[in-house]
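Q: Sequence in, structure out?
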Amino acid sequence: MTELWDAFLQAIQLIVSLDKEVVEIALRSLAISTTAVILASLVCIPIGGLIHFRNFRGKRPLINIIQTFYSVPTVCVGLFVFLFISRAGPLGGLGLLFTPAAVVMGQMVLITPVLMGLTISALSGVDKAIKDSALSSGATEFQAISTIIKEARFAVVAAFIMGFGRAISEVGAAMMLGGNIRGYTRVLTTAISLETQKGELVLALALGIILIALALIVNIIVNLALQRY
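A: Exactly. Output:
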């Protein structure tokens, strides 16, 4: 027990002293996951809105499929993207494998169903009378839809946060697509896995603390921003 406590204190010391390797891994992980969730949101949120506001055959089965992929294993996503960007894949010529871009792609695919499905759920939770009232007041369909999205903004932001949390905490796809290359593609989760296997508990603990802190900080910042509305 004493050894674990000493390791914890040393991990805190690494963080406080801004250890170069710890800071580098943390910033890279934050940059990759933030990029992934922003790019995915630009695609998934509008598509989620389109699915919600339009009626078409197969809508319910499609939503069920999207929700089913909420918990898709990260290694499966990694394998899927790996097949596409490997030398034998259709995107093999781009040389994306074992690069930060590959990790971003993997995380984007991973969080796509989460962002899309939660956006649909968020919009579905808005009272239908709001849209009817807007239309009866002379608003265009686009203006009515904008009103609904504004009403559901808290839930949509929650979807964004969930997507970020899912992205920054995954390890399977990052390991398979990035290769855990030191100074290039190594992120918090893959570094924690590696250092734990090596028995370097101090560094692993430091990175684990940072990972939890990042998730907490993002939630606090978003909540403070939403309080202004």
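The domain at 2-226 is CATH 1.10.3720.10 (MetI-like fold).
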